[in-house]
Amino acid sequence: MFNRLKKNVIASLIVTLLAGNVLPSQADVADSLPDIGTTAGGTLSINQELQMGDFYVRQLRASAPLINDPLLNQYINQLGMRLVAHADSVRTPFHFYLIRNDDINAFAFFGGNVVLHSALFRTSDDESQLASVMAHEISHVTQRHLARAMEDQQRNAPLTWVGALGSILLAMANPQAGMAGLTGTLAGAQQGIISFTQNNEQEADRIGIQVLQRAGFSPQAMSDFLQKLADQSRFTSKLPEILLTHPLPDSRLADARNRANQMRPVVAHSSLDYYMAKARALGMYATGKNQLGDDLLNEWSNGNERQQQAAQYGRALLFLEAKSFANAKKIIEPLLAKTPGNVWYLDLMTDIDIGLNQPQLAVQRLSALKASGSDPVIQLNLANALLQAKQPAAASRILHRYTWAHPDDGNGWELLAQASAAQNLRDEELSARAESLALAGQLDQAISTLGSAGALVPLGSLKQARYDARIDQLRQLQQRFRQYQKGR
């Protein structure tokens, strides 16, 4: 059982090491920072960072409350990639994940992986504020701050440090499980990591605010968001998690404002997608009581056109969550008629169709769209509708293409397993379930499951060869991951 002091020490390590705080440090906006983020090459190559990122993402999938909502994931990745397109020193692909957590936080780690807590939708007033947090995290990645921290620690049992990182990541996403994992791994390295990363924060603040502006967002958004956090902390006995170990003095807010005010101003309006994503996150994924309340919906109803649409969408969403399908349909159907390509409305309308036991109507809606063959959200919705309409073979045809194009999306593999089971294709069901296990880092179970699939098909068949080849790939992955497991 951790006492309060030990929890605060660990929280400090977590926040500083993994960019959990977005607090700006003093910086001159005119600074042109050297590309010192690349100096970590002596410790880790980019390829090694990608491997480590893959390893830790699998651990998060297994243990963290990741939100596997295709609409929300598509939104945060599109927003993130808009920022990445305006960042310098991008050496890895980027992937953005959303965790169901009501504590305000975000963190970044190896291989271009950025994780956002769902509470950021509740706390941010507009899209620029949400983007400011993401720009800060992107900058930690482009400057390779974790690799540089490892380089600084390599003389002090680097594998132990690498092992601790897995527990730190888990603690950010799932505090109870993560803190249990930290007890045997931190040892004496934590003070060096904490002191090293103070400069990292300053660097990420400076670069992040420039990325924010270049991407077309308000550079004032960072200080606005931090002011909101500071205001919240004055009227509660429980500080936001992000401020527990990093107090926010007025001088730091002033520095952020001064830096932003020296930049070219940007008039940035939040997109309709932002409001829709906020409504969905608050209405479906708040861990406590429903946070999509009348106050917010009424405010939006009296706002601009995008907010008014989001208010209607939010009310329909609440009806859907309450299984009041007829009431949800009354709201969404006329909205969809006006904008038939709106994926937020379409996704909700097809869920309503299925709730009303009319899955074939959902199939017709989705099949009629020209984008049905390319938009990932529509593909998944169509496959699900076909399954509900008892057309698993048609669903499988879509899902085989989808999983080929999106092998890291567990939604596709889960639906493919269901479609295969409905057709009594046991080997294909096992193969799909093996991929889900592999995505969650359960490689032993994935290999065993693929072995069972191979035993069900004729000896020497193409299917058996495919299953055996995949087993070989997963064994190679196990071998690469073993060095990271040793340090745990």
TrEMBL record:
InterPro entries registered for this protein in UniProt: Mito/Outer_Membr_Metalloprot, Peptidase_M48, Protease_BepA, TPR-like_helical_dom_sf
The EC number(s) this enzyme carries: 3.4.-.-
Subcellular location, principal: periplasm
GO terms under cellular component: membrane; periplasmic space
GO MF, one example: metalloendopeptidase activity
Gene3D superfamilies: Metalloproteases ('zincins'), catalytic domain, Tetratricopeptide repeat domain
Annotated signal sequence range: 1-27
Residue ranges that the Swiss-Prot or TrEMBL entry lists as coiled coil: none
Catalytic residues as annotated in Swiss-Prot or TrEMBL: 137, 205
Domain Peptidase M48 stretches: 71-259
PANTHER family (alphabetical): METALLOENDOPEPTIDASE OMA1, METALLOENDOPEPTIDASE OMA1, MITOCHONDRIAL
Family per similarity comment: Belongs to the peptidase M48 family. BepA subfamily.
Function noted in UniProt: Functions as both a chaperone and a metalloprotease. Maintains the integrity of the outer membrane by promoting either the assembly or the elimination of outer membrane proteins, depending on their folding state.
Protein name: Beta-barrel assembly-enhancing protease
